[in-house]
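hi! just following up on the protien thing from before. the input was this:
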Amino acid sequence: MNKKQLIIIFLICVFVYACKKSDVVETQIETFLGFQKPANFPEPVYNLAANPVTKAGFELGRSLFYEARLSRNNTISCGSCHIQSSAFTQHGHDVSHGIDDRLGTRNSPPIMNLPWNKAFMWGGGVFDLDLQPIVPITTHEEMDERVDNVLAKLRLLPKYTAMFKNAFGTEEITTARMMKALSQFMVMCISSNSKYDKVTRKEAGVSFTAQEQEGYALFKEKCASCHSEPLFTDGSFHNNGLSLSPVNDQGLYTATLIATDRYKFKVPSLRNLKYTAPYMHDGRFLTLDGVLEHYNSQVQDLPNLDPALKNGGRLGISLSDADKTKLLAFLSTLNDETFINNPALAEQ
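and the predicted 3d structure came back as:
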């Protein structure tokens, strides 16, 4: 076989490969199914009928999520503080770092399983996912921008007029459409493929180890009243006895002005804890060992302390070293590598 024949064969192979790759991409496009409820999850709270997820809407929402023009100086996007490899939290920071490296007062919460959320943010105040992005866009320590300025910037880009037309049938870029597009992306950030989920769905060949099973039993006994399955949060707000911080963040009280809501914060999901350190609303604990020891020995007797943490004369939840080891083993089954590596959720 001469050199010319080898070159022809090589070019044919490249062409066949390219065609096959194109076929794979085309198949992925054709099989976009929109929102699909995991079999072991309850019905979502979010009104999907009012904002059904379409391929064009999802892609627009994804582009907006990673768009730095949502911030005043075009440097900070939603994805800056919600990083996929950290289960959409801001890795390495106790509290969020926003525009001009300004410091917030709270840890960036993960963006996952939001269709089942009734309230948003550590301290509440927002009860509709379609309204939630307005808070970080306009907050001084986060994006420090005005929504009308964001819309003006987007209208200058042919990319976005085309994407809005594909998603909503019109090139007109409005606040409502921008918020609905962002919601279409965020409701698709579903974490439901951990080992726990596979065991719950009775998938073949997947089971807990003896230690994980013992940890699961302990979890149901000591933790599940607030971190209820399968979302591992009941979405409510509780005072969990943290010592007061210098900034005196009063949690839910800042939204309700009800005295009994002081120092209550939203119960976070326990999914993907491997990726979401540090922990608590202000990121005060760098490790899960620190979190468990807080509940074991460091709970403070505050006026609004959750009754579940008052056990006779003892505050907190009694946990031996063996208990902690078993609980950590179970909590590790809630990590979902498929979610944090899902290419559809990454910046394109």
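The first strand starts at residue 237 and ends at 238.
The longest helix spans residues 3-30.
cheers
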